[in-house]
Design brief:
Layout (H helix, E strand, L loop, with lengths): L2 H12 L2 H11 L17 E2 L8 E6 L5 E6 L5 H13 L5 H5 L5 H4 L8 H22 L1
Antiparallel strand pairs: 1-2, 2-3
Length: about 140
């Protein structure tokens, strides 16, 4: 797992349950704005498992560094927080590091006790699509 993401996982795992929701709200602000070229979600993939409109794109450069883009409305802070966690934790990560992220990331973070199973399922779908996009670009 990328070191930045491992730190985030440890922070959530060790945080008291009442602080976890506060931490999630902080990460909902970590989603960078989309470039103009992605206006209207051009070239992005929808994640229908999310309860709110969610779009993502992963791009692997020649040196195998992954860049991610996410879009989710601000009125969906929990789902947006998943994007913020991935944007922060995967920043500068290699394709191999992204692919090594455990599929049960959100359970490892202890989020299953703090948020609804539907939201955890949406977060897992986001990660699965992101990893699939990376795999497709390196094969």
């Amino acid at each position: 797992m990328p070191p930045k993401l491992a730190e985030i996982v440890d922070e959530f795992r060790s945080a008291p349950r009442d602080v976890v929701l506060e931490m999630l709200l902080e990460y909902s602000d970590e989603v960078p704005p989309l470039p103009a070229s992605m206006a209207g979600h051009a070239g992005m993939e929808s994640v229908p498992e999310c309860q709110t409109p969610f779009f993502l794109k992963a791009s692997v450069s020649a040196d195998k560094t992954v860049t991610t883009w996410f879009d989710c409305p601000p009125e969906a802070p929990t789902t947006r927080a998943f994007a913020g966690i991935l944007a922060s934790g995967l920043s500068g990560a290699s394709a191999d590091e992204v692919l090594s992220v455990p599929d049960d990331l959100y359970q490892q973070m202890g989020l299953a006790q703090a948020i609804s199973p539907l939201r955890v399922r949406g977060g897992s779908a986001i990660l699965a699509r992101l990893k699939r996009q990376v795999r497709e670009q390196i094969s």
